[in-house]
C-alpha cells in the first residue's frame, strides 16, 4: 500500500490552553470521564478508571520496571487506550480542562516510570493500540505506529522482506514511541546510526490538538522529536522510517570470558577496539560477578564478561575481522553462527533461533525486572587499575544481580554531526556504560551501591558535562519543579548531560511549540519564555 502524508491529515479542532487555568485540580475522575464522553464517540470502552475491574491489569500491562508498582506508587485517575486520533485529541483537551497531567505511554520502558507515575493527579494516554505498519516496497519505507514494540516492528519487516531491516534497540518489548523519541540504538548503529537517524517523517498531535506531519510542524520541531526525549514536544502517533539493507545471511556470536581467562586484558583492549571495528561488525559486552569453580577467591566468585555480536555478512568474514582487530578475544570459527536478520534480532532479546518469530508479538514472554540504573559516556579507555577497582565493586553485590553494559559507538555514529539530532554522542565518544542493579530484594542497599558505583566512575567518564543517554533516564540527575516552572539553569543539570550543546535549541523549540508546558514530566524540557507563562497559568 502506498501512503502519502495524507496519513497525517489536519483536523480542525482548535483547543485553547487558557481554559485549564480557571479550574482547580480535580481528583475525582468523573469530570474527566464525562468530558471525554462528551467530546468523543465510542470511547467509554477504552477508559479505565481505578474502579474498573481491568484497571490494574491495564496499568501493569506495560510497566516494565517493577520498582514502581508499589502500594504507595501514585496511580493514574484513568488510563485511556484510544484507537483514533480524535480520541487522543479528546484526552488532551479534557486533561487540560480538568487540570490533570497527562502521561504518554507507548511501550512503558521508561527507566523511571515517567510514562505511568506522577506525583500530581494524572491520566495515562496509552498508545498500545497504535500498531499500524504500512510498508511501501517502492521506497523501502514504512509508516509505523508508536504503539508497536521494536519486536513487532522487526517481525513486520521480516514478513515483508529478508533483505531489509531497521537499526533500533535489542529488547523486543521496548516501545517505538519512547525509543525513537530518545534516539534509539541497537546492534546496527555502527552501520546505520540511531533509529532516529532513519526517520523521514512523523505524525504528531500537539497541545492544541493539531495533527502535524513534518511539513506542518517544520524542521525545528521535527528535529526535536528525534532524540529530544519523549513527553516534551507532543504525542507522536506514527513515524515514517527508511528501512535499511541487510544481507540474507548475517552472523552472530555470543562468548564469555572470566577473570581467570584474562578478562581484564581482553576488556581493556575491547574499549578502544570496538568503536574502530568495520561498520558491519558490532560487539557489545555485559559484565557480571558470578560463582565459579575456577575462582581463586575464598568466596568462589569471579567476574565474567559476555560478548554479543552481530556481523552483516558471512561467518568466515566475521571470523577474520575479529581475528584481525581483536585477537585477544580468542574467538574460534565455531562460535560464529549464520542466521537471518530476524533470527539475529530474536537472539539479542534472548529468544532461541528456532522459536517461531510470532513470539515477538507476545508481550508477556520477556522477564520484567525491578531495577535502578545509571549511565555514563566513556571517551578514554578506563585503565587496568580502574577496571580492577570496578571488579571489586561488583563483588559487593550478590552474584548476577548487577550488570555493566557496554555499548560501543563509532562507525556511522561518528559520521553524523553532533548537532544533526538532539542525541549528541557522536565522534569522540567510545562507548556508553550502563550500570544496572536489580532491586527485587535489598532495594535500599542496592540503590546506595549503584550510587557509589557512579561516584567511583567519576574520574573515568566524560566530564563537563558528565553525560548520559536520555533513553536511560535517571531522576538522580535532577527534576523539574512540580508547579511547572523550572529555570533554565536548574534544567541544565540534566539537560546538558543528555543533550550537551543541543539542549539550548531544545529549550527554544519547546518554548515556541508548547508555551503552556502541557507536555511535562520530571525531566521534560522546560519553557523559558517567562512572559508567555502568564497566558497559561492562573
Ligand atoms: C529492558 C530494556 C531494554 C532496553 N533496551 C534498549 C536498547 O537496546 N537500545 C536503546 O536505545 N534503548 C533501550 N532501552 C531504553 C528505551 O529506549 C527507553 O526506555 C524508551 O524511552 C522506551 O520507550 P517506551 O515507549 O517503551 O517507553 P515509555 O515508558 O512508554 O515512554 C518513555 C518516555 O517517552 C514518552 N513517550 C512515550 N511514547 C511517546 C509518544 N508516542 N510520543 C511522545 N512521547 C512519548 C513517555 O511519556 C516517557 O517519558 C531499554 C529499556 C529497557 C527497560
Ligand atoms: C479485560 O482485559 C482482558 C485482557 O486484556 C480482556 O480480554 C477483557 O476484554 C477486558 N475486559 C474489559 C471489560 O475491558
Ligand atoms: C493507525 O492506527 C490507529 C489506531 O488503530 C488508527 O486510528 C489510525 O487511523 C491508523 N492510521 C493509519 C494511517 O492507518
Ligand atoms: C592470558 O594471557 C597470558 C599472557 O598475556 C597468556 O600466556 C595466557 O595463555 C592467557 N590465558 C588464557 C586463558 O587465555
Ligand atoms: C562445580 O563443581 C562441581 C563439583 O565438582 C560440579 O558438580 C559442578 O558442575 C561445577 N560447576 C560448574 C559451573 O562448573
Ligand atoms: C566454594 O566452593 C567449594 C568447592 O565447591 C565449597 O566447598 C565451598 O563451600 C565454597 N565456598 C563458598 C564460600 O561458597
Ligand atoms: C505468551 O507467552 C506466555 C508466557 O510464555 C504464554 O503463557 C501465553 O500463552 C502466550 N500467549 C500467546 C497468545 O501465545
Ligand atoms: C515553583 O516551585 C519552586 C520550587 O519548588 C519555587 O521556587 C517557585 O517559586 C515555584 N513557582 C511558583 C510560580 O509557584
How are the secondary structure elements laid out?
Blueprint: H1 29-39, E1 47-49, H2 55-60, E2 78-80, H3 85-97, E3 101-105, E4 122-126, E5 133-136, E6 141-145, H4 150-160, E7 164-165, H5 176-181, H6 189-192, E8 199-205, E9 211-212, H7 214-217, H8 219-225, E10 235-242, E11 244-245, E12 250-258, H9 263-273, E13 281-291, E14 301-311, H10 315-325, E15 337-339, H11 341-348, E16 371-378, H12 384-394, E17 402-408, H13 412-415, E18 431-438, H14 443-457, H15 488-499, H16 503-513, H17 530-536
Parallel strand pairs: 2-4, 3-4
Antiparallel strand pairs: 1-2, 5-6, 6-10, 7-11, 8-9, 8-10, 12-14, 12-15, 13-14, 13-17, 16-18, 17-18
The structure holds flavin-adenine dinucleotide and 2-acetamido-2-deoxy-beta-D-glucopyranose (7 copies).
One 2-acetamido-2-deoxy-beta-D-glucopyranose (NAG) binds next to loops.
Question: How many H/I helices?
Answer: 17
Total separate domains = 3
Beta percentage is: 15-25%
| Structural classification | alpha+beta
Largest sheet data: 7 strands, antiparallel
Mean pLDDT across residues: 93
Cα shape: globular
Number of strands: 18
Per the CATH scheme, the topology name of the largest domain is Vanillyl-alcohol Oxidase, Chain A, domain 3
Identify the bound ligands.
Answer: flavin-adenine dinucleotide, 2-acetamido-2-deoxy-beta-D-glucopyranose
List unreliable stretches of 5+ residues.
Answer: 1-7, 9-26
CATH C-level label of the largest domain: Alpha Beta
| Architecture per CATH nomenclature, i.e. the level-2 architecture of the largest domain | 3-Layer(aba) Sandwich
Strand arrangement in the largest pleated sheet: 15-12-14-13-17-18-16
What share of the residues lie within helices? 25-40%
Q: How far apart are the first and last residues' alpha carbons, in Å?
A: 48 Å
Overall radius of gyration:
23 Å
Amino acid at each position: 500500500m502506498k501512503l502519502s502524508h495524507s496519513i497525517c491529515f489536519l483536523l480542525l479542532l482548535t483547543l485553547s490552553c487558557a481554559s485549564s487555568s480557571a479550574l482547580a485540580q480535580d481528583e475525582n475522575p468523573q469530570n474527566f470521564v464525562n468530558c471525554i464522553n462528551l467530546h468523543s464517540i465510542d470511547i467509554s470502552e477504552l477508559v479505565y478508571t481505578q474502579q474498573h475491574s481491568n484497571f490494574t491489569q491495564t496499568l501493569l500491562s506495560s510497566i516494565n520496571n517493577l520498582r514502581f508498582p508499589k502500594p504507595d506508587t501514585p496511580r493514574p485517575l484513568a488510563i485511556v487506550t484510544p484507537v483514533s486520533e480524535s480520541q487522543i485529541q479528546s484526552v488532551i483537551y479534557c486533561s487540560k480542562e480538568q487540570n490533570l497531567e497527562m502521561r504518554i505511554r507507548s511501550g512503558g520502558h521508561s527507566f523511571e516510570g515517567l510514562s505511568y507515575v506522577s506525583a500530581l493527579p494524572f491520566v495515562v494516554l496509552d498508545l498500545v493500540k497504535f500498531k499500524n505498519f504500512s510498508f511501501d516496497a517502492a521506497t523501502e519505507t514504512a509508516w509505523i505506529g508508536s504503539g508497536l514494540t521494536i519486536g513487532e516492528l522487526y517481525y513486520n519487516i521480516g514478513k515483508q522482506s529478508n533483505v531489509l531491516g531497521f537499526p533500533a534497540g535489542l529488547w523486543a518489548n521496548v516501545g517505538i514511541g519512547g525509543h525513537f523519541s530518545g534516539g534509539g540504538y541497537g546492534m546496527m548503529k555502527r552501520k546505520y546510526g540511531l533509529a532516529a537517524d532513519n526517520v523521514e517523517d512523523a505524525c504528531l498531535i500537539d497541545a492544541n490538538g493539531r495533527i502535524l506531519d513534518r511539513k506542518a510542524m517544520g524542521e525545528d520541531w521535527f528535529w526535536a522529536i528525534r532524540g529530544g526525549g519523549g513527553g516534551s514536544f507532543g504525542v507522536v502517533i506514527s513515524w515514517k522510517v527508511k528501512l535499511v539493507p541487510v544481507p540474507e545471511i548475517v552472523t552472530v556470536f555470543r562468548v564469555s570470558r572470566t577473570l581467570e581467562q584474562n578478562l581484564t586484558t581482553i576488556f581493556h583492549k575491547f574499549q578502544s577496539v570496538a568503536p574502530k571495528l568495520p561498520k558491519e561488525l558490532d560487539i557489545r559486552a555485559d559484565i557480571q560477578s558470578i560463582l565459579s569453580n575456577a575462582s581463586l577467591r575464598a568466596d568462589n566468585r569471579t567476574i565474567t564478561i559476555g560478548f554479543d555480536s552481530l556481523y552483516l555478512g558471512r561467518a568466515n568474514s566475521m571470523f577474520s575481522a575479529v581475528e584481525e582487530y581483536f585477537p585477544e578475544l580468542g574467538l574460534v570459527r565455531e562460535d560464529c553462527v549464520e542466521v537471518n536478520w530476524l533470527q539475529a534480532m530474536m537472539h539479542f532479546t534472548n529468544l532461541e533461533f528456532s522459536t517461531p518469530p510470532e513470539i515477538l508479538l507476545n508481550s508477556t514472554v520477556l522477564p520484567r525486572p525491578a531495577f535502578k540504573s545509571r549511565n555514563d559516556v566513556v571517551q578514554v579507555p578506563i585503565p587496568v587499575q580502574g577496571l580492577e577497582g570496578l571488579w571489586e565493586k561488583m563483588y559487593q553485590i550478590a552474584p548476577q544481580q548487577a550488570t555493566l553494559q557496554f555499548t560501543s559507538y563509532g562507525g556511522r555514529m561518528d559520521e553524523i554531526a553532533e548537532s544533526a539530532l538532539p542525541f549528541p554522542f557522536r565522534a569522540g565518544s567510545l562507548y556508553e556504560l550502563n550500570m544496572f542493579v536489580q532491586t527485587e530484594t535489598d532495594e535500599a542497599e542496592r540503590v546506595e551501591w549503584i550510587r557509589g558505583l557512579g561516584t567511583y566512575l567519576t574520574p573515568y567518564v566524560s566530564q563537563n558535562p558528565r553525560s548520559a543517554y536520555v533513553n536511560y533516564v535517571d531522576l538522580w540527575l535532577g527534576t523539574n519543579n512540580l508547579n511547572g516552572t523550572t529555570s533554565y539553569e536548574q534544567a541544565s543539570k540534566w539537560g546538558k548531560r543528555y543533550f550537551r550543546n543541543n539542549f539550548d535549541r531544545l529549550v527554544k523549540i519547546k518554548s515556541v511549540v508548547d508555551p503552556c508546558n502541557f507536555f511535562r514530566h520530571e525531566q521534560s524540557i522546560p519553557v523559558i519564555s517567562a512572559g508567555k507563562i502568564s497566558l497559561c497559568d492562573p
